[in-house]
Design brief:
135 residues, mainly alpha, 6 helices, 0% strand
Length: 135
């Protein structure tokens, strides 16, 4: 569930779904999909466990930048926009009530800057703009 205790459905890539199914077949728990590691196995994997696991993966990958689950959310939003997803669909995926909130999650990437620059140049070429100065 998401913020405010709201249920949210999020699509999973096929590869992720298959990996989760394989994990579940070998780590099946009678009550929990993701039990917590540690002394008590009847406790669900929680926010702190996710943050700790992410921190460990980041260190193992040799990444020295601070990465949080929230920064992964930013990446998710940005990459979907780069792939052409519209802002309204992204709003639904992120579970935002306001489109303005979704717009704040997005960031202008270098790829988008390049695309904007390329589009501007193509437009100028089509208009046959000639900036030669006459004296």
């Amino acid at each position: 569930y998401g913020k405010g205790g709201k249920d949210r459905l999020v699509p999973l890539p096929h590869r992720t779904l298959h990996a989760l199914r394989r994990y579940w077949c070998t780590h099946r728990h009678p009550k929990l999909l993701f039990p917590s590691k540690g002394k008590c196995c009847d406790v669900a994997f929680n926010d702190q466990g996710a943050q700790k696991a992410l921190k460990q993966v980041v260190q193992e990958c040799g990444i020295h930048k601070r990465i949080t689950p929230h920064s992964l959310r930013h990446c998710f939003a940005t990459h979907l926009l780069e792939q052409g997803l519209d802002l309204r669909s992204l709003q639904i995926l992120l579970g935002h009530a306001s489109l303005n909130t979704t717009a704040r999650y997005t960031q202008l990437t270098q790829l988008k800057l390049h695309d904007a620059n390329q589009a501007l140049n193509q437009l100028a070429d089509r208009l046959h703009l000639d900036w030669e100065l006459t004296v």
